[in-house]
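Translate sequence into structure tokens.
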Amino acid sequence: MKHIRAVSLDLDDTLWSIWPVIRRAEAELYRHMSERFPRITRHYDADDLRRVREEVYHSRPDIAHDLTESRRVSFEVLLSEHGYDTQASHDLIERFLDLRHEVELYPDVVPALERINTRFEVVALSNGNADVARLGIGCFFKGQISASEAGVKKPDREIFQLACATLETEPDAVLHVGDHPLEDVIGAQQAGLTAVWMNRSGDAWSHEQQPHVQVSDLAELAALLIPENDFLQQQENI
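Result follows.
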């Protein structure tokens, strides 16, 4: 790890568990839609709304990299189909984004980010639509690259190159950390980065190409990047 000078971090399922957040957000939004747009919810349950979103995602490759827009268009489709003003899709997506940011960080995240920040600049790199500033952890990041802003999503090489440009560091000196074997690990390796697989669930690796490193949480990563003796010495010198 001595060649590493900067870190890029995935967000969903790396810093928090995403599906409980999404399920809760979708359930709360469905309750709101039942009050505001009852003609929709009389014909669709919450699972149906998810299927409409997936249909939009697969039928609109031009916006497949932008999960926010893809979900907003699914609201637009439903509103139009049931005779409502499609402009309401903007309010619905804003409500969803508010709910989507009600995440519970894994307990290791903030202490590990504090430790990593003593030596490395960090950028957030995500296919999702979380904003680290809205989550109160923006202070740990030099910047954030999202697929919607990049115009491509992981594992596309270009999004990793944007992260390296933000960090002002060559790819071979950047460590990318994420939970997804293809999007994070193999994608990062193909872009020339060192890749760490965040395996919080203890899953078996199922690809021929191996991650450079595997960790079970961010504390383990921080300890690899900054050994305990080095970290304690840094604290004494502050």
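Note: The two ends are 24 Å apart (CA to CA).
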